[in-house]
Amino acid sequence: MVPILKSDEDLSRIYNRSQLDMEDVRTTVKDILNDVRKNGDKALFSYTEKFDRVRLDTHSIAVTKREIDQAYSAVPETTLAALRRAKENILAFHKRQIRKNDIVSDNGKTTGILYRAVERAGIYVPGGKAAYPSSVLMCALPAVVAGVPEIIMVTPTGNGLNPLVLVAAAECGIKKIYKVGGAQAIAAMAYGTQSVPRVGVIAGPGNIYVALAKREIYGAAGIDMIAGPSEILIVADKTANASYVAADMLSQAEHDELAMSLLITDCEELAKNVQKELDERVKALPKAAIAQKSLSALGSIVLVKNIPEALKIANTVAPEHLELCVCEPQKYLDAVTNAGAVFLGHYSPEPLGDYYAGTNHVLPTSGTARFCSALGVEHFMKRISIVGYDRAALMAAADDIIALAETEGLRAHAESIRVRREKE
User: Is this structure's pTM higher than 0.85?
Assistant: First the structure.
């Protein structure tokens, strides 16, 4: 049974829930990355055979057009139509994130910013415990909107190719899909192999090996974030429906044994009713064993005096998903400072964001919402600074620049200014 806690009880297991401090896994990941970096396809194929029990070579690593066509034949028309409607919603939302170049000239001085997309992006799509076509849309479409010329995708195929994953990739315009996964696939995209091209940015969720691999290769390529297990925190008052709240908590608990499902409420009656609903509903889930382990590890109900106190705890937790199941939820938005995504009211459950609303479901976890944001168009773009002074503008600033450079002991910096002044 999920425990009911008081707000003044020790919540450190929730606050300090990072799942990435696993030194044994990190050592294994480093070995894989170094091997792929040095030996390219040879190492990539070896690890794929070892971990996924799939034998590949340079001719079979890429998904073929025939396989894409077969995937379309296997997807029901109603599912394809739903996927396309979700795609349009995601595109529409992310188009609102497009940045415009900003260059200003005044009195001989020009400064500004150019926005440029990376030349190639890599999308990682899990294929272990479950396959997520929705993650294909969420990762690829912001790159499409950003104007990335080439997007590649990797996905493990130990459990076979998921037709809807392939169809989702095709719908996003992805031309190259590789049948590899795990840390070795991250290494291939970061460093390049004979078969897999090097990319500028890697995006997409994965298991602990994938997450740690992304952490290790940062610098060789950009990454979206280091995502851990799924999380939901629900702030609810007496107007909330216990069945709705319990169902939403279980929507994350079924993802992973390490997922976090947390309710914070000022209503003791709701807390007890949700506790009962969880016990009943979890038994009926196809993934009941996973959900029960998740609830035992990081499932909690916290009783507080009022909603502002609940939001203070929520900001400390900095959850991936924050649901405000309260009366007039919008009036509490100003109090929210740390969350990956916020869901307003009793009819905005977390799965709405996972699949359909258009906002991105690749979100910061493990408290990183304190400084990290949802995956978006900006993750696939670079800001390039522009500086242009004419002679008069430079001479007006010369003394200041020389003084600052010499204060830092950088004589050559000062000379690059001084020579222009003295030469003319």
Answer: yes
pLDDT more than 70, % of the chain: 98
Q: Which residue has the tokens 């070896």?
A: 46
Q: Which helix (H) or strand (E) covers residue 416, if one does?
A: helix 411-423
Catalytic annotation, residues: 320-321
How far, in Å, are 19, 77, 237, 252, 279 from residue 3 at the CA level? 22, 44, 18, 17, 11
Quick one: 342 exposed, middle or buried, by C-beta within 10 A (0-12, 13-18, 19+)?
buried
Give the Cβ contact number of residue 196 at 10 Å.
Answer: 26
Centre a 10 Å sphere on the Cβ of residue 304 and count the other Cβ atoms it contains: 20
Cβ proximity of 202 and 226 under 8 Å: no
Q: How far is CA 1 from CA 89, 93, 145, 255, 272, in A?
A: 38, 39, 45, 19, 11
* Beta strand spans in 134-209 (E): 150-154, 176-178, 201-203
Residue whose C-alpha is closest to residue 381's, from 28, 71, 80, 113 = 113
What is residue 59's three-state secondary structure? coil
CA 64 from centre of chain: 28
